[in-house]
Write a structure and sequence with these properties.
The protein is mainly alpha-helical. Helices cover 47% and strands 7% of the residues. Helix 5 packs across helix 7.
């Protein structure tokens, strides 16, 4: 998809407003909607969205609005699980009994260096193929 010049200008302005909002409180990405609804509705970002054509109650998914660095930071939580087979993360306060999912911090301890594991996870978050994903020709 190619944005028009005006679309690029709007996208850049919205991105700056979003970054300013997150700089004030990064936990907006993970807090419950009802705990923050008043703050969000009072934000410049919500004001912009409400003035756009066909206004709706917008929502975003964490993986679509958070930086990769913040998503990696979240993997240090005891609530985050990962399935290498499904290449999916799962977050739950109650634990996880889904087949193939392992607590990320448990996986991290088996890597020689935590930085190497973080690089592995970053590549997974960015959907970059790893050596195991390449076919021999």
């Amino acid at each position: 998809m190619m944005l028009s010049y005006k679309g690029i200008v709007v996208d850049n302005k919205l991105d700056k407003i979003r970054k300013d909002l997150l700089a004030k409180d990064h936990s907006l990405l993970i807090r419950d909607w009802m705990d923050q609804v008043d703050d969000l509705k009072a934000s410049a970002l919500f004001d912009c969205f409400s003035k756009m054509p066909k206004p709706v109650c917008h929502h975003v998914h964490l993986t679509a609005c958070a930086s990769v660095e913040y998503l990696l930071y979240l993997t240090y939580s005891e609530k985050v699980y990962y399935s290498n087979k499904e290449n999916m993360f799962y977050v739950s306060r109650k634990g996880c009994n889904k087949p193939g999912y392992v607590k990320v911090n448990s996986l991290r301890q088996y890597w020689h260096k935590s930085d190497d594991f973080d690089k592995f996870l970053t590549d997974k978050i960015l959907l970059k193929p790893g050596p195991e994903d390449k076919e021999d020709h």
